[in-house]
Amino acid sequence: MSYTGSAPASSSLYWKGMESSGDPHPPILAGAQNAWDMLSDEQSQKHITTGSGDLNNILGGGIHCKEVTEIGGVPGVGKTQLGIQLAINVQIPVEYGGLGGKAVYIDTEGSFMVERVYQIAEGCISDILEHFPHSHGKSSSGQKQLQPEHFLADIYYFRICSYTEQIAAINYLEKFLGEHKDVRIVIIDSVTFHFRQDFDDLALRTRVLSGLSLKLMKIAKAFNLAVVLLNQVTTKFTEGSFQLTLALGDSWSHSCTNRLILYWNGNDRYAYLDKSPSLPVASAPYAVTGKGVRDAVSSNHKRVRVT
Amino acid sequence: MSATRGRSGGGATTSGCGLKRRNAPQDQEDSKMMNQDQPSTEDWCGRFWNGMELLKDVTERKHFLPTGLEGIDTLLGGGLRQGQLTEITGPSSSGKTQVCLHCASNIAAKQMGVVMYLDTSNSFSPSRVATIIYGISDLFGQRGFELQPKDARLKSVMRSIICESVFDIFALFEVLHQLEVSLLNDKVNNGGSKVCLLIIDSISSLLAPIIGGKYPQGRSMMISVAVILKKLADEHNLSVLVTNHMVSAGNGAVKPALGESWKAVPHVRLMLSRECQNNICTATVLKHTLMASGRTAKFAAPS
């Protein structure tokens, strides 16, 4: 029973009369928004496609801007692939249904393979041309945009080699994003790596991490962009058995808006939406192909990619 | 209600004494007189209340605001009490934010007043609120509302939920100060729709970066927040709802975060947990001012 109300714009005429009788009083809190205005903002937002229609469905259309999404999973399940895919997909031009934004990629593990990024960019472009066959004859400026080189040039890449650098980079982001307003996604791959080693004082680690997560929340909201944090898994001893959970502990688990867990189910990759304020818990299969993240081939109801 | 007994603004002051400082209706004439004078000790101290007056105040003004979730309402004896601070704690994705959104929607839909929602984790979801309001809309279809189209009703309800993002403790102090000033103004002007519920989701993510370690400032800021929230709740008859995280208590168990000194702050403490892979939430009362603790209720996480 999800809300599918008509766009507020369509009813704006009707509201003209009521508007004047609206708030005669000053706002209770300067700068605060009421839920109705936020709803119309939200409905006009575009989401960043993951490349897989099934995955987009459980995420409510894709990765949402103004939110922090954590993606976790065992090594090799495709976290980095999804991260790179998002860095490419955020750049799909507006006329092809994308956001036409740029990406910031903060790499702590050194797993950002630029050849692979080139491949994924090519895959993305060939899919766009497949879905918009008429656009072949379009103006040269549109065609020029659809070059893998162009996609690569619009990723701002930071290589981080220690947790001090990571803290500094996140603190610097606010200034950087102020100067680069067209960035629509920040990906940190992974947020965990440096904090899992050489950090003895766990209470201090919790404080530092919760401070960082608030900063990222603030950035997501202020610059209207999506923050995607990749996280590793760890084993945790609960109720007599070892279970896989995301790393960085219980306090960290509160510090994201959405959480997506990637896991293996036999030989298939699945994604599980573990936490979301607006969407039900759900899971969906996906595949990592040569072109990047796509729908699993066994998925019998093939969907046209949401654009 | 009357003015503020000679205290200007009222924002920067702290509650100086342990006695209840309130404005009784018969204060009005002497408060005018007091305004000219320097505030005396008695002025700061306020007046005495006897038990009968308190009882009258409680029955007339301290309502239970229903959350709209039956299980929780029964557990809490009707809902969130005005004048009190209620805390919801629970592990990640146990439904804390859902309960907050549900409360906000329910109070707004029943037109009990304005809801102020302070969000620290970008998890205030307007579309979720709209869905919840549609779910309870049959309740308020009877009050002459049916003359308006569905969107119009939704709009008027959603406009009484006001949301602000807060990302650090200083921003929280600033927002609470602003809120207090505008509540005082509302009192004086006797106008505006009254704020009846203040939600902070979550208070612990603001406090977690500053408490602990060898410096005591963080702890004192936490207590300041507690003092301000309780003061707002008492003086403006607000119900305050905050959410708290859970942290590891060793050997696999979890406990509410923020430690022992925060434990004394909320009037009511409710713990949520959700079983894996399903939508059944369990709520447990850890602390309650009127009722026995330890009782539990199950409810379906609204989907």
UniProtKB/TrEMBL annotation, chain A:
> Which Gene3D superfamilies does the record cross-reference, listed alphabetically?
P-loop containing nucleotide triphosphate hydrolases (3.40.50.300)
InterPro entries given in the database record: DNA_recomb/repair_RecA-like, HR_Repair_Mediator, P-loop_NTPase, Rad51_C, RecA_ATP-bd
Q: Which GO terms describe its molecular function?
A: ATP binding; ATP-dependent DNA damage sensor activity; crossover junction DNA endonuclease activity; four-way junction DNA binding
UniProt keywords (A-Z) are:
ATP-binding, DNA damage, DNA recombination, DNA repair, DNA-binding, Nucleotide-binding, Nucleus
The chain positions of domain RecA family profile read 44-233
Spell out the PROSITE patterns in the cross-references. Answer: RECA_2 (PS50162)
Instruction: Supply one GO BP term.
Output: reciprocal meiotic recombination
Localization: Nucleus
Instruction: Name a Pfam family for this protein.
Output: Rad51
Q: Which GO terms describe its cellular component?
A: Rad51B-Rad51C-Rad51D-XRCC2 complex; Rad51C-XRCC3 complex; replication fork
The UniProt entry, under PANTHER family, shows: DNA REPAIR PROTEIN RAD51 HOMOLOG 3 (PTHR46239:SF1), DNA REPAIR PROTEIN RAD51 HOMOLOG 3 RAD51C (PTHR46239)
Q: Tell me, in a sentence or two, what this protein's role is.
A: Involved in the homologous recombination repair (HRR) pathway of double-stranded DNA breaks arising during DNA replication or induced by DNA-damaging agents.
Q: Which family does it belong to?
A: Belongs to the RecA family. RAD51 subfamily.
Q: What is this protein called?
A: DNA repair protein RAD51 homolog 3
UniProtKB/TrEMBL annotation, chain B:
Which lineage ranks, top first, belong to the organism behind this chain? Answer: Eukaryota, Viridiplantae, Streptophyta, Embryophyta, Tracheophyta
Q: What is this protein called?
A: RecA family profile 1 domain-containing protein
Record keywords: Nucleus included? yes
One GO cellular-component annotation of the UniProt record comes to: microtubule organizing center
Keyword set for this entry? Answer: ATP-binding, DNA damage, DNA recombination, DNA repair, DNA-binding, Nucleotide-binding, Nucleus
* Record family assignment: Belongs to the RecA family. RAD51 subfamily.
Which Pfam families does the record associate with it?
Rad51
Q: Please, one GO biological process term?
A: telomere maintenance
Q: Which SMART domains match?
A: AAA (SM00382)
Explain the purpose of this protein: Involved in the homologous recombination repair (HRR) pathway of double-stranded DNA breaks arising during DNA replication or induced by DNA-damaging agents.
Its subcellular locations are: Nucleus
GO molecular function terms noted in the UniProt entry: ATP binding; ATP-dependent DNA damage sensor activity; four-way junction DNA binding; single-stranded DNA binding
Species per Swiss-Prot/TrEMBL record: Panicum miliaceum
| Nucleus among keywords | yes
The domain of life is: Eukaryota
Task: Please list where the region (Disordered) is annotated.
Answer: 1-40
Residue ranges of every copy of the RecA family profile domain listed in the record: 61-246
Q: Which SUPFAM superfamilies has this protein been placed in? A: P-loop containing nucleoside triphosphate hydrolases
Return the InterPro entries for the record. AAA+_ATPase, HRR_RAD51_Paralog, P-loop_NTPase, Rad51_C, Rad51D_C, RecA_ATP-bd
